[in-house]
Amino acid sequence: MSHKELAPDGPGAKEDPSAEARSAKVDKSPAKIAGMFDAIAGRYDLLNTVLSAGLDRYWRRRAIATLKLTGRERLLDVCTGTADVALGAARRATGAARVVGVDFSGAMLCHGLEKVTQARLSERVQLIRGDAMDLPVASASVDAVTIAFGIRNVQQPGVACQELFRVLRPSGRLAILEFGLPVVPAVRPLYLWYFNHVLPRIGRAVSRNTSAYTYLPESVGTFQFGDEFARILTDAGFSHVKSRPLAFGIVYLYTGQKS
Ligand SMILES: C[S@@+](CC[C@H](N)C(=O)[O-])C[C@H]1O[C@@H](n2cnc3c(N)ncnc32)[C@H](O)[C@@H]1O
User: Fold this and answer.
1) Where are the domains of the chain?
2) Which of 79, 113, 137, 152 to mutate to test the pocket of ligand 1 (most atoms within 8 A of CB)?
3) pLDDT digits (tens, 9 = 90+) for 147-206
4) Counting atoms of ligand 1 from 1, which one is nearest the CA of 56?
5) CA-CA distance, 78 to 205, in Å (whole number)?
């Protein structure tokens, strides 16, 4: 089975190497990933809405809600992209008092900055350029951390999780959203067909970028989701780690705490 084709428990899965080994085969060098997001930044929000039928907004709201913000927190949104989680967390009535969004794609941040300005939240939401594996943030300085649909792109997810742990203050909370694969037998083949064949075509046509929406199923197919990723979080030091499948497991919400 080609690692480009998502079907981890399909024919050929037994001889397929571990998710870790497959992940190593996908080029996730910062230059490649940042360049890819730079290239699609202008169409990223539109494509998110189209390809997820608007569900992406619900998933982000759900992730923010698990943090139980009170209006006083300082939140760090890593891989912030066009700042949807950063803005979502700052907009809520009892949202974060201050939000810092970090991303290494300058073009994604530019679009995010426009949205922050339009929302008149520039005083509370700051976007900075940086790498998830080496966060430009002081240790134990934030109350909550989030990553939405970013961790699977990071070259060494374990290193990024250690960084999240480092910057959180004791008893600070974590919420991570990332794609998984549906476990329900009736849904799985249909989803894999959509994800492998329909989604890349729409993505390529709308973004006018050939590689980004070929990379998307590749990156999801090689990401260690569910219990495997929960273990990475536990190894990084997080406690109360939970992994919840959303929408039949298309997406997983991971939560944890630094205690
Ligand atoms: C799929 S987008 C998600 C954006 C946003 N969080 C959302 O929910 O729409 C992934 C983002 O992660 C960023 N990213 C990937 N790896 C990164 C890393 N190692 N450090 C910083 N940003 C990274 C990319 O530049 C991109 O903007």
Assistant:
1) 19-257
2) 79
3) 999 999 999 999 999 999 999 999 999 999 999 999 888 899 999 999 889 989 998 888
4) 8
5) 28
